[in-house]
Write a structure and sequence with these properties.
3-stranded antiparallel β-sheet; about 120 residues; 6 helices; alpha+beta; single chain; two-stranded antiparallel sheet; 5 strands
């Protein structure tokens, strides 16, 4: 599914890596490692790497994200496509996958992601 198109802006509040580091009380290098390891995803906006603020709650990265990101990557999505999917309303969920994850619907989100194969 990877494309060479310019990604469309996602409908999420994006914060810089240093802001994410502060929210998580960890060094910037650790945030970058979380992105490399797909525990977080980021996108460049005006040349600055940013992550969705919704990925961090109560000083921690949402644990449901990693497996979902890996599954979507295995399906063929690139990081920008994953971010777009996470914050776009998914008809079968009735909400965005991110909202469904926040509501504790991890299995349902992953089942739909897997069906994208």
């Amino acid at each position: 599914m990877a494309t060479n198109k310019t990604p469309k802006p996602i409908s999420a509040v994006l914060i810089t890596v240093p802001d994410a580091a502060e929210a998580l009380s960890i060094p910037v290098t650790r945030v970058r490692r979380l992105i490399e390891d797909r525990h977080l995803l980021g996108t460049k906006v005006d040349g600055v790497l940013r992550v969705p603020q919704d990925f961090i709650k109560d000083g921690r990265v949402l644990s449901e994200l990693h497996g979902t990101f890996v599954l979507l990557h295995d399906v063929g999505f690139n990081d920008d496509e994953i971010l777009d999917w996470m914050f776009s309303t998914e008809e079968s969920l009735g909400v965005t996958p991110m909202a469904a994850l926040q509501a504790g619907r991890k299995a349902e989100v992953r089942r739909i992601a897997q069906a994208l194969l």
